[in-house]
Amino acid sequence: MNQPFTIFLLPTVALRHLFQFLNPIELFEISQCSRKATNIISGTTRFEMSVESSSGSIVFNNYSFMVIGRHCQAEYPPTGIRVFDGNTVSADVCYLSENELLIYWDCPYIGFKTVLSHLVHLFNSTTSHLGLKNVSMPPHICLSTVELIRNRQTEIDSLAISSTTMSVEDVSRIVNQFKVTESLEIYQYFPSDPNIPFTSKSVYISSSSWITLKHLNSMKHCTVIRLRESTLTDDDMTSFLESWNSGECPNLQYLSIRSNTLGKNFTVFGLPSLQDEVNKQWFEKRICGISPIIYCPVEYKRDDGVVAKIHFDKNDGDIQLMVM
């Protein structure tokens, strides 16, 4: 006959070894049992975390904690109550699947901040991705989220920002808190230069009217550059592309700049046109987590043998370059 076994009677060393085989949600549930369990877990486990405010998701190794409003309880009825923030607050929860735990809160913004703080300390986590793309999240929640993560690390792989509530100063402050190494995405209009450093391999800016040739030249180390709503001119683009042609952009694999100030007949490198209307082929390449496609390009070969596909769409002012 099987007898129940109280695992907390095991020595601390044995529990630490046991907890290494459990996933983040299982460890979270065990941490609810006792202060001893919480202390052991926070002292022995370390998961990489991905944070996305638009969905209220905090993800560890494909295990997701999602904070949502109580109005969703009718669709997904709660199955239990869990405690957070040092057992000072409680919330209803529901398992959406074995990998996803829903956590209900009266104010999802406050709940997101509270649950994030709780999990960061429980799992002694570092953050690989921070997505602040909930456009209506209050600035103080965004900034406190950044401060929580910044207190534990100075570098981050990926940072994405989209907000209607944060000022230029807020966004500039957030970006300058970290050295972004892989991907920086900004979906926000700036009336002036926000003084943002470009340290990542990939840069995407949805409203880039403030970007000048000086800014573009500071991206010469990048692998991917994507700018929308740009005001870069023919002279600006010619200057940058000639820099690439002379080998000053050694990492560049893909460039896409959509500017409303480029001339309809823009071309470069002495090519008669940047659109192949005869072959009409398309090319796709997997680069830095994206798969851009370039249609009807012309081929250009540098003096050092590097081959690239180049295309200019005069209708939307989009100049593309893809290194093959």
Account of the protein in words:
- With about 325 residues, this protein is of the alpha/beta class.
- It has a domain at about 205-324.
- It is about 25% helix and about 30% strand.
- The chain has helices spanning about 10-20, 25-30, 35-45, 110-125, 140-150, 170-175, 215, 235-245, and strands at about 50, 55-60, 65-70, 80-85, 90-95, 100-105, 125-130, 155-160, 180-185, 200-205, 225-230, 255-260, 280-285, 295, 300, 305-315, 320-324.
- A 15-stranded mixed β-sheet has the order 4-5-6-3-2-1-7-8-9-10-11-12-17-16-15, with helices on one face. A two-stranded antiparallel sheet has the order 13-14.
- Helix 4 runs parallel beside helix 5.
- It is elongated.
- The N and C termini lie far apart (about 65 Å).
- It comes from Caenorhabditis remanei.
* Strand-pairing-aware structural class: alpha/beta
Q: List the secondary-structure elements in sequence, H or E.
A: HHHEEEEEEHEHEHEEHEHEEEEEE
Count the strands? Answer: 17
Task: Name the average pLDDT.
Answer: 92
Strand order of the largest sheet: 4-5-6-3-2-1-7-8-9-10-11-12-17-16-15
Beta fraction: 25-35%
Instruction: Report the biggest beta sheet as strand number plus sense, adding barrel if it closes.
Output: 15 strands, mixed
Count of runs of 4 or more consecutive helical residues: 8
Mass-distribution shape: elongated
Helix coverage percent of residues? Answer: 10-25%
Please report the distance between the alpha carbons of the first and last residues.
66 Å
Return Rg in Å. Answer: 25 Å
- Poorly predicted regions are none
Domain F-box: 4-50
Protein name: F-box domain-containing protein
Pfam families: F-box, FBA_2
InterPro entries: F-box_dom, F-box_Sdz-33, LRR_dom_sf
